[in-house]
């Protein structure tokens, strides 16, 4: 157990992401109605219309991370989007209907692990190749922020049904976002539901809710430990959680005010998968002044700090985000993880293309 955990943390601390991966083909964005138009059909249950349009994607603000730069013009078409993140109840219905088994419930494959480790790295002990996932646990004392093993641990048996590992449960959390789901799991749910994952551009446009050039989905007011806008961290990360927002981990969906499009939890609660491959420096490749038209992301992932790991985009931040650590509850913020990774602060929501007349 300890040996396998060291392999996982080797990848995470070195910036290589979680070590499981399946080289899945990206589902490209389908046709959508033109920007700014009203949909010629009634709203699907639980979804809201995102009208599309042109916006400034990314950020040049001093608080922005390098992967968010430079800000650039993007145009997206209209689409439907889930009003909130997929809940435990909704995911349970999918599993019951299909018998689906998530990646966290499958034993990892040695060859897939070794493909993402630097050449010459010794393999983990075969007895450690059992189902499990990464779980956040708050340390009891102040710890350095440059060693994530102080708050992340690999737990055998951690799944969407047992988010914190054996002994935990989702009972009483039926209306919380499902977690410990991989990109592959999210894709399978979307296909079953007749939907798809949003592109990164669609997600960020929708998160902004019609606000242009704002740092947050609610505007320009910075959150503090006393001024709470979403389910994020209050206190001293990661050892002290003041829970001024009312929640230690995930919150029930719709617990906080929606944005301008009527979408809930586009900041905080859980990170959300997007369909795109992740390229850390993608925005630098765009021609200055050019408008990117409904981009679906790069053809493959690229991150020099994670050369062996294909990565998918995640957006929105989570209940772990705090201004002393990452400030990634901003709409322009982005991070990545491998397609088979599940963690206790990652979920998703779906989008749906309009039916063309």
Distance between the termini: 56 Å
Give the overall shape, derived from the CA principal axes: globular
Proportion in helices: 10-25%
| pLDDT averaged over residues | 89
Q: Approximately how much beta-strand content do the residues carry?
A: 5-15%
**What is the radius of gyration computed over CA atoms, rounded to a whole number of angstroms?**
19 Å
SSE order, as H and E? HEEEEHHEEHHEEEEEEEE
Instruction: Extract low-pLDDT stretches.
Output: 1-33
The spatial strand order of the largest sheet comes to 12-11-9-13
* Tally of strands: 14
Tell me briefly what this model is:
The chain has 357 residues and is of the alpha+beta class.
Lay out the secondary structure.
Elements: H1 2-13, E1 47-50, E2 53-57, E3 72-76, E4 79-82, H2 88-98, H3 110-114, E5 132-136, E6 152-156, H4 183-193, H5 200-208, E7 235-236, E8 240-241, E9 271-277, E10 292-293, E11 312-315, E12 334-337, E13 346-347, E14 351-352
Parallel strand pairs: 3-10, 9-13
Antiparallel strand pairs: 1-4, 2-3, 4-14, 5-6, 7-8, 9-11, 11-12
């Amino acid at each position: 157990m300890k040996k396998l955990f060291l392999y996982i943390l080797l990848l995470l601390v070195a910036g290589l992401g979680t070590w499981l991966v399946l080289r899945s083909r990206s589902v490209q964005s389908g046709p959508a109605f033109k920007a700014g138009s009203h949909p010629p059909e009634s709203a699907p249950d639980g979804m809201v219309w995102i009208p599309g349009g042109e916006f400034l994607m990314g950020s040049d603000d001093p608080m922005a991370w390098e992967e968010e730069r430079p800000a650039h013009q993007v145009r997206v078409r209209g689409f439907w989007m889930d009003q909130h993140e997929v809940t435990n109840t909704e995911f349970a219905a999918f599993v019951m209907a299909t018998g689906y088994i998530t990646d966290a419930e499958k034993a990892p494959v040695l060859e897939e692990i070794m493909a993402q480790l630097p050449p010459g790295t010794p393999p983990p002990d075969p007895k450690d190749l059992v189902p499990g996932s990464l779980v956040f646990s708050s340390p009891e004392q102040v710890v350095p922020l440059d060693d994530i093993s102080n708050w992340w641990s690999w737990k055998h048996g951690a799944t969407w049904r047992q988010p914190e590992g054996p002994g935990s449960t989702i009972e009483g959390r039926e209306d919380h976002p499902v977690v410990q789901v991989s990109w592959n799991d999210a894709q399978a749910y979307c296909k079953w539901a007749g939907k798809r994952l949003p592109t990164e551009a669609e997600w960020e446009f929708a998160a902004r809710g019609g606000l242009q050039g704002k740092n947050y989905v609610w505007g320009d007011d910075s959150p503090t430990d006393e001024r709470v806008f979403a389910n994020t961290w209050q206190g001293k990360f990661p050892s002290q959680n003041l829970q001024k927002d009312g929640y230690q981990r995930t919150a029930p969906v719709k617990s906080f005010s929606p944005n301008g499009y009527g979408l809930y939890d586009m900041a905080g609660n859980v990170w959300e998968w997007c369909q795109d491959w992740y390229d850390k420096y993608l925005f630098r490749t765009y021609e200055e002044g050019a408008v990117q038209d409904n981009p679906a992301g790069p053809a493959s992932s690229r991150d020099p700090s994670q050369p062996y790991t294909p990565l998918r985009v995640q957006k929105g931040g989570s209940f772990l985000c705090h201004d002393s650590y990452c400030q990634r509850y901003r709409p322009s913020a982005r991070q990545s993880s491998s397609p088979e990774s599940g963690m206790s602060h990652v979920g998703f929501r779906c989008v749906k293309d309009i039916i063309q007349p």
